[in-house]
Structure formats: C-alpha cells, structure tokens
Amino acid sequence: MRMSLTLVVLGLSCVSAFGAGGDSVRVTAQVDTSRDIYAGEDFQYHIIIDGARQAGQVDTAPLNPWNPRSAGMQDLSRTVTQIINGRSSTQVIERIAMTYLLTAPVAGRITLPSVSVVIQGRIYRTEPVTLNIAEPGTTDLLDVEIAVTPSQCYVGQPVELAVRFFVGQDIRNSQFNIPVLANDAFRLEMPDTIPAGASQSELAPGVTMIVTQQTTVHKGRRAELFTLRNILLPQRPGTFAIEPVTVSTDMAVGRTRSRDPFFDDFSFFGSQTQYKRFQVRSQPSSLTVRPLPAENRPAGFYGLVGDYEIMAEASVTKVNIGDPITLCIKVAGGFLKPVQWPDLSAIPDLARNFKIPEQQASPVVENGFKVFTQTLRANNDSVTEIPSIELPYFSPTKGQYAIARTKPIPLEVAQTRILTGADIEGRQSVTLSKEVEVIRQGISANYEDPDCLVDRTFSPLAALVSPAYGLLWAGPLIALLASAGARALGRNDPRKQAAARRRKARVVVARRLKTVLAASGSERPAQMVEAMRQYIGDRFDRVPGSLTADDCCRIIHQAGGDADAAGRYRDIMAQYEA
After folding, report:
1. Cβ of 160: how many Cβ atoms within 10 Å?
2. Considering the entire predicted model, what is its pTM?
3. For residue 12, what are the CA distances in angstroms to 53, 133, 496, 512, 558?
4. Which among 40, 220, 270, 564 is least surrounded, fewest beta carbons within 10 Å?
5. CA 389 centroid distance within chain
6. Where in the chain are the domains?
7. How far is it, in rounded angstroms, from Cα 506 to Cα 10?
8. Nearest to residue 513, comparing CAs of 500, 502, 524?
C-alpha cells in the first residue's frame, strides 16, 4: 500500500517538474522515505537529471561520510504522442536517474549535503536532503557471528569468510552490511563448487554469497542458522581489522487485529503478524597476511598458494606417428579456481617430440579435481614417453615453495605405413552379380485388388449426428457459455466492481498522466487535478468530484500512515488548483 502511494506521488512529481522546467536541464536529489531508514543500513540516494539523456559526472566527495557506492543508472526518458482532430503532436520527456547506495552510520537527523553534477561542461548542484535515521531495537532472539579461516595467511592464500546469522523468530526484509567485502585489500571469489541445498544471494551489485540454512541450538535456544560463505584472496600483506557485520531485519513480535478490512492492500479480515525492526552486530575480528618470500621462488610460479597435487594419464600408449593422444591432466588441492593451464610448450621434450595445438579446451572442476584435456600427436618414432609436467606453488603449511610433478607416461610409437595406389583401389577385384532375385510374396509384393482400398471419405452431416463428434464440439461450447455467465454475474456484483476499481487505480492514473503530459499548458492544471481526484476516488471508493487537496491528504494518511507521501500529494494537487 505504502509503496503504491509512493510510486504515484513520485510520478506526479515527475509531471510537476516537467511542467515547471520546460526544456532546461534540472538536477535534483531524492531519497525514498516510504519506509524507515535505520542506523547501519544501506539506503538509496537518487540524482535525477531532467532535460538530458546522458549521465553526468557526480562529485560524491561530500557524501563520503555515508560511504557512497554506485548502484547503476536508469534512463527514464519517454516519448508521448497525441492525436487530436487528425493532428499529431509529440513530446520527448528526457529523464536520467543515477542511483547510489549510502550507509547511515548512526541514528538521528542527518542532512545529506549538496553535490555537484557536470553535464555537457556545465555544473549543476542538487539541494540538500534531510533524513531521520531511526535506531533499531535489540533482542537476544537474533545473533550474528563472523569468522575468517585461517586467521593468519599469505598473500594469495584462499581465506574462507563465513557469516553466521542465528534467528529464533519469524523474520523478513533482512539487510546485511559486511564491510570486509568492500575492502580493496581482498578479492572476492566464488567457491569451486556450490554445496547441495545451498543457494546464491546477491547482497549488492557484484557481491554474491553462498547461503545455507539449518536448524541448530544457539545459547540454549532452538534457532535457524543462515550461513553466508565466500572466498577472500588477500592482495597485499598486513594486519587487517575485520569490522563487525551488521544485520537489520523485521522480526515478528506478536499479532494484531486489522484496523479496517475495507483497505485490502494493507490489512485483511482477522489478525495479522506485527513486525518490528531489530539490529544485531557481530564482534570485530582481524586477519594477518604475510608476504610471500622472494628467495627460492621457482620458475613458472604465478602466485598459486595452497597444497596441490598433479597427475596425468593418456588415452592410448601404443600409437603410430601422427595418431591423436588425449592427454588428461588433473590437479587436486585446496581452492582450484586460480589454477591455470599448464604451459606444455615450455617443456622442451614435449615441444620437440609432439605437435601441440594452440587451441585449448576450457577446464572443468569435477569430483575435487580441476581437469585439463589436450590432444597431442607424436612427430617421430623415437618418442618413448610423455614427459613429466610441473606445477609450482607455495605451501602455507610448510612455509616454502614446492613443485608438484606428474609421472612420465611410457609410449610406444611406430612408423606410419605409407599407402600405395593398390591399397587405395583394393588388391583383389570382386565380381558382383547383377541378377536380382524377385520376391513374389511378403512385404515387397504389390497388391492390386480394389478390395484392399478402404473408403475414408468425410461427411459433415455424419459428423454432426455422430455422438463422438458431438462431444468434441458441444463440450467447448458449454464451457464457453458457463464462463461467460459466471463473468456476467461477477461484473454485476458491486463489491467486485469496487475491488476492481481499487486494483486498477494506479494503472488508470498512469494512463491519465500521459494524457496530462501531452496536453497544452492551459489545459494541463485542470486535467492534473481531475486525475488526482479520480485516483483517490477509485482507490478508496470516494466521489472524485467533491475531493479537495486536504481531503486527499487526510485519506492517504489514514489509510497508510505515511504523512510524508500524503503531504506531498496535497502540495502537488494544491499547486495545480491555484
């Protein structure tokens, strides 16, 4: 209900801005206040550019205390065409919305300062935006923990990040704030495989976590445990503070009787669950990242950190020169995603004795192995083996570099036999009989008797009186008549008619707003007021013609409790009534 009213008010604001601003560029800042904003939560900050179809360069430095992060851009431009008395008129409404995610650190009244936006070399400034940040409640029915494993590692060593959220009551609309995910000292990577029963959840644009759920006992209470996991790859050495994770959620605190069953969008007959906003915060942690030693670094090392094994097998071991040999290389160990294709051309014996195609198939991860497959061809009969393949890595358990090697694969390579013309033509000639034995009976026989033909002619009259055909055409007809009768009865029900008007109120007002935008300047105010009255009349079963701006404000406030949306609706309506 509240979201529906907010969308309608924002739509009216767009029309109002277009009517007042003409063709000039206008830049404004907006924050959706249709729901409360709580300390520690992210909220959306929109920069609206009217009169241009390209994004501007935004200086977000004034917003740094709220950690601004770009959340994308949306082109809201549209073209409105109207035909009156055979004459067509077209208006282009240009509108760009640039969205940023901000985080409210503490509760209280805050003012987001003006920011500058450069559009086609010209500087525009937004107006400051004032917000009330609420303080969420606390409860022992919720708890959150963060863990990084291991707590001491090397640069490039995979570290498992696990956020465990314990829930002892029904919740909804949860929001996670995990500061370490925004730290440029780490690169976020998805695990090699996703466990059975797990799902993927996008916490923010480009940030996806693996989520599992199970029932457990936490602090003596039965609770649902939601675990969010991912892999962190440290990019530089140092000791890093793992800041606390904050989770805000709506938790059920009881049940309440519905206030008025008339408004079906926000209440219903009987009781409904009552929710309250709560927030929990984890304890801080830390992670120590050591640098990789510079001494004894083997050739071909590309930053692989972990404990790995490598093995290889060939599809055949007895071949002729030029015959294909499928070489399968398997790597096992910890985190397999960073493992790269072995450079086969850098192995002297392999490059000298085999033809190695430049094309490489994409590796796959299966059964705990990363599998690389390549086709080789021996180019001489002196080849006796596929040489060993090396994989250099740094072992964090031993604290030193190591090299894993495959075992050489023995081969027997024979010379290729040269084909002669006789081999191609065939050494023996075979005389083929040209006699064809005639089969007089059976499936090859031809039947010419007219009795073999069956009369398959179709008679419409026979089909009409046939019981089988009667069911085919009478069934759909009966169903159609029954459906039409039911719909006719439903349309005559006043309660259903009122419910239909309420459901379609937003769609109807959106269509009328397009007509308002296409109207001339003198006609626009009256049409706007009529559209706003009609929306309130349809949505709340009131008589549209007698509604004033104050009436609409009171109705909206009583229905959804959103004083801000109600006041904006009244102001816009009063502006056009003046």
Report:
1. 14
2. 0.57
3. 20, 26, 28, 11, 20
4. 220
5. 40
6. 25-134, 142-290, 309-414, 494-577
7. 12
8. 524
d(CA 231, CA 210): 10
C-alpha torsion 351→355→358→364, nearest 10: -90
Angle at 121 between CA 117 and CA 123, to 5 degrees: 35
Residue with tokens 């206040």: 33
Q: Confirm if 174 and 249 have CB atoms less than 8 A apart.
A: yes
C-alpha span between 104 and 129 (Å, rounded): 13
**Contact by Cβ (8 Å): 251, 169:** yes
Pick from 517, 510, 574: nearest CA to 15: 517
72 φ/ψ sector (left φ>0, alpha ψ -120 to 50, else beta): left
Confidence category of residue 491, pLDDT binned at 50, 70, 90? low
Let me know: does 207 contact 71? Beta carbons within 8 Å: no
Q: Does domain 142-290 fall into CATH 2.10.25?
A: no
- The per-residue pLDDT of the chain, averaged, comes to 83
- Measure the CA–CA gap between 335 and 158, rounded to whole angstroms: 7
Q: Which amino acid is at 77?
A: S
Full DSSP string of 123-190 = EEEPPPEEEEEE--B--TTEEEEEEEESSEEETT--EEEEEEEEE-S-EEEEEEE-GGGG-TTEEEE-
Give which of 328, 254, 317, 244 is closest to 285, Cα–Cα: 244
pLDDT in tens, 417-456: 655 665 555 555 454 444 444 544 444 455 566 666 766 6
Structure token pair of residue 515 = 């007509």
Q: How far apart are CA 502 and CA 257, in angstroms?
A: 22
Q: What is the pLDDT of residues 2-51, one digit of tens each?
A: 445 554 555 555 555 444 444 478 999 999 877 788 888 888 999 999 88
CB of 325 closer than 8 Å to CB of 280: no
Contact at 8 Å (CB) between 112 and 129?
yes
Q: Compute the distance between CA of residue 37 and CA of residue 49 in angstroms, rounded to an integer.
A: 24
CATH architecture type of domain 25-134: Sandwich (2.60)
Residue 178: how many other CB atoms lie within 10 Å: 24
CATH number of 309-414: 2.60.40
Which long-range contacts does 536-541 make (Cβ < 8 Å, 24+ apart)? 538/501, 538/502, 538/504, 538/505, 538/508, 538/509, 539/501, 539/502, 539/505, 539/506, 540/263, 540/502, 541/262, 541/498, 541/501, 541/502
Looking from the CA of 366 toward its CB, the CA atoms found within 13 Å total: 6
Give the closest residue to 388 by CA, choosing from 488, 281, 312.
312
**Parallel, antiparallel, or unpaired: how do β-strands 309-314 and 354-355 relate?**
unpaired
Other Cβ atoms within 10 Å of 130 Cβ, number: 10
| Whether the domain at 142-290 and the domain at 309-414 fall into the same CATH topology | yes
